[in-house]
Amino acid sequence: MVKKPSKNTKRMSVYSNLAHKRKVKKDKDARKKAEYLATLPKNPVKRFFYRLHPKRFFGYWFSKKGLLMMLKIAGVAVLLAVLLVGGLFAYYRKDLDKIRPGELAKRVQTTVTKYYDRNGQLLWEDKGDGNYKLVVKSDQISDYVKNATIAIEDRDFYKHNGISPSGLMRAAFSNARGGSTQGGSTLTQQLVKQVFFADEAGDRGLSGIPRKIKEVILSIEVERMYSKEEILALYLNESPYGGRRNGVQSASQTYFKKDAKDLTLAEAAMLAAIPNQPGLYDPYNDAGHEALIARQHRVLDVMLELKMITKEQTEEAKNYPILEHIQPASSQYEGIKAGHFIQYVRSELEKELGKATVGKGGLTITTTLDLRIQEKLEQEMNAFFASNKPVYAGLNNGAATVEDTQTGQIVAMAGSRSFDYPGYGSYNAATSYVQPGSTVKPFVFAKLFEDKGANSQNYGSGSILVDEPVDNIYGAKLQNWDGKFMGSLTVRRGLALSRNTPAVKAMYINGGNSSNPQATLDFIHASGAPSYCEQEAAAGVGLSSAIGACGVKQTDLVNAYATFSRMGVYKPTATVLEVKNSQGEVLKKFKDESKQIFDPQVAYIINDILADDNARAGLHGRNVYGLMIPGVGSSSKTGTSDIGIKPKDLWIVNYTPVLSMALWLGNNDATIINSSSSSLGGNIVGGVMEYAHKEVYAAEGKWKSGDWYAKPDGIQQQGRELYPSWWNSRRARTAESLTFDRVSKKLATECTPEAAKIQVNVTKANDGATNRQTYVVTDGYNPNAKDDVHQCDDAKPSVSGISYSSGRITVRISPGRYTLSNVDVLVAGESIGSGAPSGNTFTVNYEGSGSKQVTVRVQDSAYYVGEAVSTVSFGNGNGGSNGNQ
Fold this sequence. Notes:
By secondary structure, the protein is of the alpha+beta class. The protein has a five-stranded mixed sheet, with helices on one face. A five-stranded antiparallel sheet has the order 5-4-14-13-12, with helices on both faces. The chain has a five-stranded antiparallel sheet with strand order 25-24-27-28-29, with no helix packed on it. Helix 4 (64-96) packs across helix 9, helix 13 packs antiparallel against helix 14 and helix 19 runs antiparallel to helix 26 (600-610). The longest helix has 33 residues, at 7-39.
């Protein structure tokens, strides 16, 4: 009998079978996994790339195991994202309390920026919109502006809740194709950015991530608290519309002299085009006009695409000549003081703080301007242009800049003859490119002095550079202003008399005896005039840049001269002492920065040369007002630039230890003028500088009469001339004596009469540009040419007869080639009379008796001499003569 298994045995059998099956499956999976691993490369790197093969990669992820793994990863990612976003919201919530959306409307309000001079005098209140409020309600804004703005900036405005993922994707796609017309930010985000984060708009990378998170959170909150119409109105009231125009009402009044509710389609489309790039699309920026019209047309095309307007309306708006109907820019600055300067300050602040920050207003700006000096400058400019001088000179404009040299701060500026002068007054010539002419020469020579090479020829004010033709060096025919060459000149005289050829030679030497001007240009740029030759290619201007052939900004030129005044120390030009926002926070504060550019000895020598009134007397005369300031020690340089041989620009620069001033006179359209007298504006410079020193700086204890630069240690002085400590006199020159002709002041020849010869002590030197020996000679003698007045076959003067009668000696004379200049009569070796003959006879009274020897010497203007000797009987009756004559 077979025993049946019990229930427990059956149950155990079932469990056993299940365990067996699991074991078999587990072994099978393990074996399968082992087989799979056996197929993989042993090298971990190779194994990684092996698994990335498309067949194996997709085979795994589309398997049951792969899908399960994908679900696990997605779940973890979602959880982490939720935790991250929640954490970020929680972290930044503390900051959002400070910028609650409920205060948004309070922040979007009419703003006024106030400009003050350095002493607290109000210069201008920039209201942004003249006599109208900046903020207007939604129903006071044209629907054209609303629709145009939505079309070009955020077409999904009425569909999203503050952020637009589709807008971000569309912008990214459009940017990838290079044709984006709108950004990824919604209007709400842009509003939040303009109101709360304008000062952080320049953030990039990781530093901008917190701002972006705050921006997104705040945008969502704004959408929750405000209606779409309110948000749109706030945006239009806050957006920058170019220059000082902030808000649609301000822009509408400024450009079209009408309210925002009355804007036409063409006008609305133009305004909607501006906020994307308010600097470029500013209607007063001539360079951006083409881009502005192109974007306006794009706005109209998008409006048509969204069926906001008809095709007929689109074409009509495009064909409307809108730029011809823009109001003049000068009309926006009524009541402004120092208008050119204020415009310049605003432009510089827009570069530094951003157009949005400056454009939204509410700033308190304390400038460097001194209104007292500014008003004196304007007074002198007005007086000059009210006189006949500009009429005779054929010029109609001028510009001037005055800088406090010790700080680099501009204290006065006139960008034209008058800011409100019709046609071109508001154009600022002080910040425009104008050729400086000879005012650039001091920097060329300063670079020459700066060379400290032990093996090179060093230079000082007494070094020689021959004023002679340099066509082979210059590459073209080069003349001086008078069409002449003066031969051997010291650097002092060459610079003071503004000779072209010594300056060209100096730049040639600076370039290692080549025509490459870069070494000198680098020196000029570092000294404070980086704009010089900025618009021209250095290789193109070559050595002509030594005589002012490139353009430069006057503000740069005056600051470079101030570097001479600071004894070689550069300081950046400054226009602002402090900027505060509407909350009283300091956005900018003047910081005194400096850098030693060249040796103080170099600056001292240049300052001394340009203060030498005797050295420049041959060019302008002595004591010219504006070049000399009564009671104020100053240095000066003039300059003229030409078109061909006709002058077009006149310059004067005058500077002292405390102030520097540059003046330009010319025509607003850069045409030629009738005068080449660069000292023409001397009364302007003299009047301003004398007042500024004696009435302003003296009263404030910044200057006193007699102030001058302390002579740096190491300066070598030989007579009037100054040399830096590294100048080697033995290598530079040797002493010698040469014989000159008194008449021609050139070297004597065998034909030069003895009476015309003179011995002059000279110094032999080397011209570094030509490497030829030359001489340092005083009193105008020229050692580089020979006597060309006297010829060996010249007819000489002679005495043809001597007679005596009734107490009078009469001498008959025959002149030679030149005019007789003197006759001397001697009796018994004693002169009894001399003088210039009248005609061919000369008479002298003499009372005597007996026979005596009479000697007559005659000389002409060329120092030719004739002589005769005769024995004459003297008595009470008629006398005679005998003997040789």
